[in-house]
Amino acid sequence: MDRMKKTKGRQKIPIARIEKESDCFATFSKRRLGVFRKASEISTLCNVDIGIIIYSPTGKPFSFFHPTMESVVGRVQNPNPRLVNDASRLLEAYTRNRVFQLNQMLDKLAGELEAEKERETQLDEVVKSQTGGGGQGWWGEPVDNFNKEQVEEFTGWLKHLQSELVKELEKRAS
């Protein structure tokens, strides 16, 4: 059965002024985040200082600075790094170190997330292999398909569950 596409998907749009005000606001919001993300990537990858100030169509300013606004503005005002005071250098070094640590933590968490996704895929494959590809476990099968041992095991599990529920109900009632 053919399924028709419901949307046009991603398309290249011509670079021209957006006349419709609501579209302009939506585009600004989406593109602003993309610009800041790219600025963050370039500052991390190339170890550069970067500062961006963007004014929205309504006149509200948005900014991104790395490592800090003071260090970027200070470098614009005084390009000679030898004339910067020690306190500014210490603050900048601390900020760079903190950003580096946070990026390492982010990379570590991304690796853990990837490992968990791989583990989930493996567990899904195990469930499929045990259920014959149907994706359901013993709870999805008719009781008629159980052998005597499975029925006894299931009955014991249900009795245990019932006793735990009764205990919880009594605990909440008192």
TrEMBL record:
The keyword Nucleus applies. It comes from the Eukaryota. Pfam families: SRF-TF. The keyword Transcription regulation applies. Keywords: DNA-binding, Nucleus, Transcription, Transcription regulation. It is found in: Nucleus. SUPFAM superfamilies: SRF-like (SSF55455). This is MADS-box domain-containing protein. The lineage of its organism: Eukaryota, Viridiplantae, Streptophyta, Embryophyta, Tracheophyta.
